[in-house]
Fold this sequence. Notes:
Number of domains: 1
Distance between the termini: 39 Å
Structural class: mainly alpha
Largest sheet: 2 strands, antiparallel
Radius of gyration: 18 Å
Strand content: under 5%
Oligomer: single chain
Amino acid sequence: MMRFFPFMAFAVLAYGVVVAVMGIPLERVLFSIGLPSGASFAPTTGETLLAVAILVLFFEIMNAASARSSSILNHGLSLLVFVGCGLAFLLLPAFGTGTFLVITVMSLIDVVAGYSISILTARRDLTVGPQD
């Protein structure tokens, strides 16, 4: 079941739960760590959500690199996630932020990369002519 599930949906759900349901502002500093340089590293909710989305995108692209029959279903569901992201960005006020726009672009990259990797893999697996 998880083979065809689009992992980018986790990033979208995380954003929805944290921002829309829990109402945590994207600018809220989550914690602060003093660095050896003397600077203070203080990631915000939005930055943390983007970091999670980037990690999820990595696993989604790794999943797209496999040449399984479930990949086609995964690509279709990833396209639905992208369309849902676009609609949420345009129609829902809590999703109309720069942070969610970047997550939406990541879901577009997931769709394009998934189809591109599948096409390249299929082209490489296609053998024409006599084989020795």
